[in-house]
Design a protein that fits this description.
This protein is α+β, with helices and mostly antiparallel strands and 285 residues long. Helices cover 22% and strands 29% of the residues. The chain has six helices and 22 strands. The two termini are 20 Å apart.
């Protein structure tokens, strides 16, 4: 598909148009698409919940993994789950299956693939802790398996995101549900009520610096309510930039830069972006 608008693939609802676009429904389809790409840059979009899509034409091939959604139970505690599987659905479904562990991720939007690539989480924990292995496709369309210990991960970071691959599935291992799991789930859902859930955003703009809350720093530095074009810093939570109706991706990135500079000037602390900007995974071979 050519000249495909992309803003609807982002929770921020900004961004331009893909020169070429594909939405495979199976691993073989994805592999064939990459093999036929002909040496152009290849991008990937999952749930689009922590992403800024640049304005204008995105040169190359943009692949959406949203239709890779199979969930195959392997044994009592593990399942192989494709990258497009809804992350909120996964978290809520585990309790029905009598499994626990991901309660800290309650309410985090997106897909499993995106959650893995950014090690999404809360309360000092991340989803990569549960990945026994990750299957990914490289620039030649070949399938590779990365087992636990073969890729590093940390706070909002997974080394796979810089390896030039597209994650297609993961073997996830959980634990038996515990009596306090439901209370923990509810607790994290309650915390998310402090976020501007009724507005279009890309989630937290910045990572928390060690020993600090990014939201508190931004608030104390007077960032709430700052605007650039149609983008505004939420009055409810200063670490969220919201699309008030007609924002461009340029508006969002400029506002984020303005906020980071204000915090640096007033505190000396350098904020690191948590939102990523869409960039090529690789150039197809």
């Amino acid at each position: 598909m050519e000249n495909q608008p992309l803003s609807h693939l982002s929770t921020l609802e900004t961004g331009g148009t893909a020169e070429f676009f594909a939405q495979p429904e199976s691993l073989p389809q994805l592999q064939e698409i990459i093999r036929q790409a002909g040496g152009i840059p290849v991008y990937v979009i999952g749930g689009g919940s922590n992403l800024i899509i640049p304005d204008g034409i995105i040169p190359g091939l943009v692949i959406s993994t949203r239709r890779l959604v199979s969930f195959i139970r392997r044994d009592e505690f593990s399942a192989e789950i494709e990258a497009g599987y809804s992350f909120p659905r996964l978290v809520s479904s585990l309790s029905v299956m009598g499994l626990g562990g991901l309660e800290f991720a309650a309410g985090i939007p997106g897909t499993l693939g995106g959650a893995l690539m950014g090690n999404a989480g809360a309360g000092g924990r991340g989803v990569c802790e549960f990945a026994e292995s990750v299957k990914a496709v490289d620039s030649s369309g070949n399938l590779r398996t990365y087992r636990r210990g073969e890729f590093e991960y940390g706070y909002r970071h997974c080394a796979l995101s810089g390896m030039g691959v597209i994650a297609v599935s993961a073997l996830m291992k959980f634990r038996s549900a515990a009596p306090g799991d439901r209370d923990e789930y509810i607790s994290f859902m309650e915390k998310r009520k402090n976020q501007p859930l009724n507005f279009r955003s890309a989630g937290c703009t910045f990572k928390n610096p060690e020993g600090y809350s990014a939201g508190k720093l931004l608030d104390e530095c007077g960032c709430k309510g700052l605007t650039v074009g149609g983008a505004s810093v939420s009055e409810k939570h200063a670490n969220f930039i919201v699309n008030t109706g007609n924002a461009s991706s340029f508006d969002v990135t400029e506002l984020a830069a303005l906020c980071a500079e204000r915090v640096r000037e007033q505190t000396g602390i350098i904020l690191e972006p948590e939102i990523r900007t869409l960039s090529p995974c690789f150039r197809s071979q």
